[in-house]
Amino acid sequence: MTIPAGIVDTLKFILLEVIRQIEDTQKALDQGGDQELIAQIIARDEYIDNLKVYVENHCFSLIYSNSTVSIKAEADLIRAINTITGNLERIADHAVNIARQIPYFANRQFIKDYDYQNFFEIIRFNLKRIHKALFEQDLGLARKICTSESKLDRAYKRAFERILKELAKGKEVENLITTIFVLRYLERIGDCLLNIGEAIIFSVVGEKLKLSQFEFLEDILTDLDDLTIKDIKFAGIWGSRSGCRIGLIQAPKLGNKEFVFKEGLLHKIEEEKTKIELWNQQWPGITPHVLDYKVKGDHASMLVEFIEGDTLQHYLLDSSDSKLEESLGILEGTLKAIWEKTLDPNQKPPCKALAQLEGRIEDVLRVHPNYSQPEMLIGGMKIHSFRFRLEALQEKTKDLVAPFAVLVHGDFNLDNIFFENKTKHLKFIDVHRSDFGDYAADAAVFLISNFRQKVFEPELRSRIERSAARFLAFVRQFARTREDHLFERRLGVGLVRSLITSTRFEFHPDLAETMFQRALYLMDRLMEEKEDHPFEVPTSLFIF
């Protein structure tokens, strides 16, 4: 499909009008505020708005017409055009805002000392690149459009710091403040240009990528086999709560070999890389290999081996009973071997579950404010508040420690446990929280990861309950062989933490309330524990 001429022509008109607005706005500043020119700039804004609405309506009409748009690449280009048009309209709005500031100058020549011409030159030059970059799918030009934002940022920073020093002198205050406003609008145009450049990148790659992510991806592909963006297929992997950008790369030139690309804040990516290396030292092959690693400023990226297989969550919900049993057997056997090999009796890791809960309770209460209910009296019986219960349990368990440390995953959810298709070898992913710690904490996370599955068919719930019961029996047996007499207590505290923190992602009212009430039940039972009546996690806890 070719983009209808009406849309292409209207986009050209918008581009020409916006360039004209920018040039006339600079001319108005150069001339010290020609009132007639300012009026023309303001008047043309409505025309640009109307052109933008025309393009927007036609883009949506094309996308929602299944008979017109047949492949994703076509829809991506239409979406990019719509994004570009919206940002061009915002650039025109900023030009109008600048024009409206000009009359506030007491001295119309004052701003000429602050090199505003440089801002306009960068803006005008990159506006003229847009049409070619979009319709020739030129990633190099798109990247240059994106980098105009940082150039404008730096120019604004220099001017702003100078203006602050001048303001401290108490002179020319009106002119200085008006200059800040004008330059700030020019700097905000850089944000629009960045959005436009990234929209063009999206139209080529087919996935939304920030400039930093695009640059990391380019560098990593060059290292991989001197590949370019156009040599690969890139598909974003959404749903991660880590804040990192994750994508699947498929390289046809390398026999359709697949890789995982991760980009994010330096400390997060570096942490995961370090923990992958820790696992490969202690248990080689249990995590995917890091194939490349890049750092730029406060961000980093890495290329990771792709695992062809399925998660334990898949085996729990979508496979036969025999395959689920096989997977659980592999998991238990591997965990037992890892825990025995890495066991360190000299480390006594403290139970951190309630401290972790304390750090996330505000997020929980934002989603479920009713959990913070006050203390109540019902028929003369005092019902303690959640806060009271939490503080009491924190005090009672403050000295609770494990008798030894093992290497733990740290985020032992079902979807972080993989089994390779061919070999059935176990693999761990998202190991950024791994360290030597308490296996009871991993056990608690795993058990609640089973329980909180949003599945309510009786047969599947029964499978989930059996899976939890089996794993609980396994981990209890390990605790008995190691004479870990406080395991049940630490597991209970870990379950409290996992049940409550999981509700911050859960909007299903019955499931969220069920998890919260079970946590309160465990808190009360833990508080009632005595030497002659030790606490034990009831297996029925995992029955929904």
UniProtKB/TrEMBL annotation:
Biological process according to GO: intracellular phosphate ion homeostasis; negative regulation of phosphate metabolic process
Gene3D superfamilies xref list: 3.90.1200.10, Phosphate transport system protein phou homolog 2, domain 2
Pfam families found in the cross-reference section: APH, PhoU
Residue ranges of domain Aminoglycoside phosphotransferase in the record: 300-466
Domain PhoU: 18-101, 120-199
Signal peptide as annotated in the record: none
PANTHER family, alphabetized: PHOSPHATE-SPECIFIC TRANSPORT SYSTEM ACCESSORY PROTEIN PHOU
Protein name: PhoU domain-containing protein
Protein source organism: Candidatus Lambdaproteobacteria bacterium RIFOXYD2_FULL_56_26
